[in-house]
Amino acid sequence: MTTPSADNNAGDLDEQRIGGRIRDLRKEHGLSLRALADRLDISASALSQIERGKMRPSVTRLYQIMSELGEPMTAIFGEGDADAERAESEEERRDAPGWSGPPVAEGRAVKPPSEVLSDHVSVTRADEAAALTLSHDVRYRRLTPEQVPGMSYFESTYPPGAYSSQNAEFVRHSGYEIGLVVSGELVVDTGFDTHRLGPGDTISYPSTTPHRISNQSDVPAVAIWLNLP
Fold this sequence. Notes:
It is built from 5 helices and 10 strands. The protein is α+β, with helices and mostly antiparallel strands.
């Protein structure tokens, strides 16, 4: 099992927390260890090692797990303390005597509650963003201050020689992926095609297409990904 990079921040999830979150989500969906392992086409022993924090999943393995559970990638982080504190603060304000919501300028249309994500502003500072380090030391950092229904928005950092899958195999899962390379170079293989992407290059593809991502250069590569179910 690899060791997380020394520059990982305090918000990083370790193997125990990642595995525990997977186990909790599996149980919430009423799946046994063997049932989920069969869906993933891996042994129950391998899944058990992931859940017990004995083995760190690859990027694509984690995608497969969350896809089989019908959960976005952001669900692996759960709901942070900061989110809970904001929700509690908002609830207290609503319950305060005489509070009727923030002032609204006359003539400005206001969307009904069903059309907005939330009624409060969420901010996460750069050094507080939730992050996790997966197999090959690939690091994922959540870019949304809180979970956003129907999408996952991440920054990924691939060290030199890193692959998105454990053994550089092609994988597929449900969903759609859109990527933007910020720095370095990533190689994205989709089916029989190979795409070398540099800073500013973008790519999109259905996740059902066999694919893999790698950094075949000698410097880290950073990219931003939007994943849709």
